[in-house]
Write a structure and sequence with these properties.
The chain has 89 residues and is an all-alpha fold. It has one domain. It contains three helices and no strands. It has helices spanning 15-29, 58-62, 69-88. Helix 1 (15-29) crosses helix 3 (69-88). The two termini are 25 Å apart.
């Protein structure tokens, strides 16, 4: 492979990622029960290993319903951190 057949990945965050980032900030400032971050774009990224829609891992997605509010907030914190990392990359 010389590299010419590779398609470069877009850099930075997509508009849906920016909306999720803003929602994460709102959720983390609220005392209400955290909503699911699912936006019905359910594809696992080979690059990041997270869902392309909600930026959760498979374990976070599968265990969402069993988590209490504090644990759900921790998942939202992880999402915010992932988005911040990939925005800076």
């Amino acid at each position: 492979m010389c590299g010419s057949e590779l398609t470069p990945k877009p850099q930075g965050l997509q508009p849906s990622d920016l909306r999720l980032q803003a929602q994460a900030a709102r959720v983390l400032q609220s005392t209400d029960a955290p909503p699911s971050p699912c936006i019905s774009i359910c594809r696992m990224s080979e690059d990041t290993t997270y869902c392309e829609g909600c930026w959760r891992s498979l374990d976070e997605i599968a265990g969402w319903a069993q988590r209490n509010a504090d644990e759900k907030r921790e998942v939202w914190q992880s999402i915010a951190a992932r988005l911040a990392f990939y925005a800076a990359a």
